[in-house]
Amino acid sequence: MDEWPGSMTGPSADTAADPGAGLDRRAELSEFLRTRRARLKPEDVGLPDFGRHRRVPGLRREELAQLAGVSVAYYTRLEQGNGRNVSAEVLDAIARALRLSDAEQAHLSHLAKPKRHKKKPATRTQQVRPVLRQLLDSIDGVPAYISGRRSDILAWNRMAAAVFGDWSELPAPERNWARLVFLRPEYRELFVEWDQKASDMVAFLRMDAGCHADDPRLSSLVGELSVKSEEFRRLWANHDVKEKSYGVKRLRHPLVGELTLNFESFRLTDGTEQTLITYHPEPGSPSAEALRLLASWGADATKAGSGTPA
Asked: Is 0.85 topped by the overall pTM?
């Protein structure tokens, strides 16, 4: 029988089957703190290591509490998932002691002191404003798309279809980056550094889970991927978190070969939790020439490269 990764890192089988269930926020907080503490060694934080046999990987709770300036009992309660009444100052001190990144610190705050969200129907479809769809259509020669909660792909332009495949041919629930990366072999071939893409994808989902642990669709997605993908189970158990940002992505397109594209993420400020992502090549580069060729094929480009009749 399939098992969930780790103890308290994912929903139980009963929870996953319940469409109204979400992730266990207390378990998420407990495991996040434990995994962050396990990755630190005494010498990393300026504590002496007397060479005694250590029963746990990384820092002991006593050492972490000392660094954060809180009592061992207080920190132990927090690591057991009891974040009630913890102050922002204490969370900041623990974040500094654990050497958390900005994204990790925000994740810790979301888990320990969750914000109250207005209750929305679980079945409500994410909507993209018409003016944003017009913007996508006006971006010529540059792949661009809008993603939403749970890494859902909500809207895209013609160049995005040429580079990543025609998402309009997929059922709406399948237009999801996590499902594409972990469950569809063609995307494993598309991304040259697939391992990094997969790691980033799980880290984005973890960030989303910290903000919306009560989201039943997110819990269902995590459950499905945990059952179907060993790589996802392993990465989900790491509890790494990351925000979408910018960088360079290398792709292996079936029609034009390797592409090197710079990507940028623009978080929309309209409260929809949607992000506009664009990919562009260096001017005059082979990738720029390849994109021009793909523009002439449009959404049929990936079919042509794979030998499928366009």
From this structure: no
